[in-house]
From TrEMBL:
Keyword DNA-binding: no
Primary residence: membrane
Signal peptide residues on this chain, from the entry's feature table: 1-21
Domain ABC transporter substrate-binding protein PnrA-like: 73-320
Keyword Signal: yes
Protein name: Nucleoside-binding protein
Biased composition (Low complexity): 49-58
Record GO cellular component, one term: plasma membrane
InterPro entries: BMP_lipoprotein (IPR050957), Peripla_BP_I (IPR028082), PnrA-like (IPR003760)
Chain positions covered by the region annotation Disordered: 29-58
Domain of life: Bacteria
Record family assignment: Belongs to the BMP lipoprotein family.
UniProt xrefs under Gene3D superfamilies: 3.40.50.2300
Length: 381
């Protein structure tokens, strides 16, 4: 998930909720299916059991990265954000441990809140001018800056998380099948909901975050066709404060809970903490995003409501990219980090995903990897 963070705004009153299959605008009135009795969803037949692991197992490859000078151009928050940036940093840390990249040859720079586009270009130029190579830009907000800067440094290798820079041959995209991981989050929500009524909170209404919404909707509907699903985006496209506003996340979650939702999935960056606090106050459940949020210090007080997290393995993508650079061969790097290469997944920390549900999840996962289930990356509403 992309984390453009802005300054924290005051909480606003939020009406819930738009049923994903239908209406065009948010509404406070419940609509669609759902089970008000609290008996749970009428579940679809379980998928066939997965015959074997549906993730490609790669032998640990070795390469000498000692000559690399690695640059990380972080999103707002930098190292220590307990989420998107830290996942990228973990990939670099693994390269230090396993590829011999020297710590002193790792240079990190962070974005500022609501910074001008020119600041991103300056950051990338500074790294390239300092002889850093390769340079990893963490987040799609760097796409325009890379398009402007990369041609000036043709011998420098760049990578960007969550975006593709057309025409820039020295920029490698590191993109993910967020919709696949979110499909399983939808299945989890359907199996865990007592009211057959669940919700989705998106930070900013961009095509990237809509991938999370699309997969979640499809997975929930696959598991429970009559389930009611509500959604709320905290800010429109272009206003990235939606990724850094826990108060808005809390208000959105409260609105959905008032409408009957008892499992909430967020793709809202730091605003997700507000979703968790609302869920804890109301005694309902939540699903985290990007990393295993059950184990994050920043949401430790709310971790008991977190039944799972959709894992987006930015650390895997960053490490695999650095391994490929060290081997001087980018040709075998995955075009998309999906289920088949371990690029997305789900967390089981906290013990709320039992063996029976895990078998269901692995069954759906196998069908996605085989192509029997095709997960859309665009919402149906």
């Amino acid at each position: 998930m992309r984390r453009m963070r802005g300054t924290v705004l005051a909480a606003v009153a939020v009406s819930t909720a738009l049923v994903l299959a239908g209406c065009a605008k948010d509404s406070g009135a419940p609509s669609g299916g759902g089970n008000a009795s609290g008996d749970g969803c009428k579940l679809a037949p379980k998928p066939p059991a997965a015959a074997a692991s549906t993730t490609t197992s790669k032998a640990q490859e070795k390469a000498d990265g000692s000559a690399l000078k690695v640059g990380l151009a972080f999103d707002i928050g930098g190292r220590g954000d307990a989420s998107f940036n830290d996942s990228a940093a973990a990939g670099v840390d693994k390269a230090v441990a396993e590829l011999g990249v020297k710590k002193e040859n790792v240079k990190e720079l962070s974005a500022g809140p609501n910074e001008a586009e020119s600041a991103k270009q300056t950051r990338l130029r500074q790294l390239a001018q300092d002889g850093v190579n390769p340079i990893i830009a963490v987040g799609f907000a760097y796409a325009d800056a890379l398009k402007a800067v990369a041609p000036s440094f043709p011998n420098t290798k760049f990578a960007i998380v969550d975006a593709t820079v057309e025409g820039a041959t020295n920029v490698t995209p590191l993109v993910f099948a967020e919709e696949q991981g979110s499909f399983l989050s939808g299945v989890i929500a359907a199996y865990k909901s007592k009211k057959c009524n669940v919700g989705f909170v998106g930070g900013v209404e961009t095509p990237l975050i809509q991938k999370f919404e699309a997969g979640y909707y499809q997975g929930a509907k696959a598991a429970a066709p009559d389930i009611k699903i509500s959604k709320k985006y905290l800010t429109p496209a272009g206003d990235f404060t939606g990724f850094q506003d826990p108060a808005k996340g809390n208000a959105a979650a409260q609105g959905m809970i008032s409408g009957g939702s008892d499992v909430l999935y967020h793709a809202a960056g730091a605003s997700g903490k507000g979703v968790f606090t609302a869920a804890k106050a109301a005694g309902v459940s939540a699903i985290g995003v990007d990393s295993d949020q059950y184990n994050q210090k920043t949401v430790e007080q709310e971790k008991d409501v977190i039944i799972s997290s959709m894992l987006k393995r930015v650390d895997v993508a960053v490490f695999d990219y650095l391994l490929a650079v060290a081997k001087n061969d980018l040709s075998k790097l995955p075009k998309v980090f999906d289920f088949s290469v371990g690029g997305v997944g789900y967390a089981t920390s906290g013990g709320k995903i039992d063996a029976d549900l895990q078998a269901v999840l692995e069954g759906y996962k196998a069908q996605i990897v085989s192509g029997q289930i095709k997960v859309s990356d665009k919402p149906t509403s």
